Amino acid sequence: MNYYQHRFETVHEYLHHRSPYLLVEEIHSITERQIITSKRVSANEPWIKGHFPGAPIFPGAMMQELVTQSAGILIA
């Protein structure tokens, strides 16, 4: 596996998204067929505060957006 790590600034080269909708923070590994990315989720994220009050979770729609952004980087 061709392993290399990118920082947040490099993600901007692949995606036009910006905060708070840029979800990919790091690219840990990328090959022709696979990408491994990450995002640190905090309780201060705007979409977590109301999802769900008293029992906050990372919304499924935002998980799907993270996957979509990762796929966009992979095919770029």
Walk me through this protein's architecture.
With 76 residues, this protein is of the alpha+beta class. Helix content is 30%, strand content 12%. The protein is built from two helices and two strands. The protein has a two-stranded antiparallel sheet. The two termini are 19 Å apart.
In short:
By secondary structure, the protein is α+β, with helices and mostly antiparallel strands.
Whole-number tally of structural domains:
1
* SSE series: HEEH
What's the tally of helices? 2
Please provide the count of β strands. 2
Question: Helical amount among residues, as a percent range?
Answer: 25-40%
Sheet with the most strands, sense and barrel status: 2 strands, antiparallel
CATH architecture: Roll
Please tell me how large the radius of gyration is.
Answer: 13 Å
Query: Which class do the helix and strand fractions yield?
Result: alpha+beta
CATH class descriptor name: Alpha Beta
What is the strand and helix layout of this fold?
Blueprint lengths: L7 H7 L11 E5 L4 E4 L21 H16 L1
Antiparallel strand pairs: 1-2
Keywords:
76 residues, alpha+beta, two-stranded antiparallel sheet, elongated, Thiol Ester Dehydrase, Chain A
